[in-house]
Structures are given as C-alpha cells and as structure tokens.
Design goal:
This protein has 117 residues and is an alpha+beta fold. It is built from two helices and nine strands; from the N terminus they run βββββαββαββ. Keywords: Amino-acid biosynthesis, Histidine biosynthesis, Hydrolase.
Length: 117
C-alpha cells in the first residue's frame, strides 16, 4: 500500500468505504498542531487481496497434509480432463499457485518450489 503523506505517528482508521485516515484530535509529533491528514492508498485492491488471502488460508487449513507437510497435486488438461502429471505441493506451493495462477509444485529431491512450464 502506498502512502503519499505520513506526518503523524498515530493509529490509522479505515472507513466503511475502505479509505484510511488519521483520527481527529490526535497531536502530531511536534505537539503544536492537531492532525487530520488523509492518506491516499489503494485500499480497494488491498481489501481484495486480504479477502483472497483469507480464503486461501481457509482452504490451506482444510487440505489433508501428510506427516511431511505435503499433499498430492494433479495437473489436468482443462478441455479434455486428461491427467498431465502428478506432483506434490506444500502450503507455499499451493498458495503460490493460487496467487500467481501458475502451477507450482514442491520438489522432494531438491526441497524447493518449481513452476510447471
């Protein structure tokens, strides 16, 4: 989130429309003026990302992981349904797949993530 002006050190509040702002009546660092500065931000995008992250976390909690923290993942052809490959994913690989929209698997031999294609 980009903040264009940040003069005071105080809590930010979020309005019902997703705007971030400083509370009225808070004193600034120099204690000479009262502050009420608006903060420009991309709150709508942030809210969408927070909503997506929340849904991803819920989904990750419902996956049956094995004792090594892995689950079997199947890549299929979207048109025919043919199975293209079978691999393994950990939580990071599955979250990366969802956020990047590119198939990401976990390599057991290298202990690292890799992207298909």
């Amino acid at each position: 989130m980009a903040v264009s002006y940040f003069y005071c050190i105080q809590p930010l509040r979020v309005s019902s429309r997703g705007r971030l702002f400083f509370s009225n009546g808070e004193y600034c660092r120099d204690n000479h003026k009262r502050c009420c500065y608006l903060v420009s931000s991309s709150a709508q995008k942030s809210e969408k990302n927070l909503c997506l992250e929340s849904k991803v976390e819920k989904m990750l909690e419902n996956v049956k992981w094995d004792d090594k923290g892995l689950a079997v993942a199947i890549a299929q052809n979207v048109d025919t349904g043919a199975i293209l490959m079978q691999g393994f994913v950990n939580k990071d690989a599955l979250a990366t797949t969802i956020s990047s929209r590119k198939a990401t698997f976990y390599s057991r031999s290298r202990s690292s993530l890799w992207m298909k294609g």
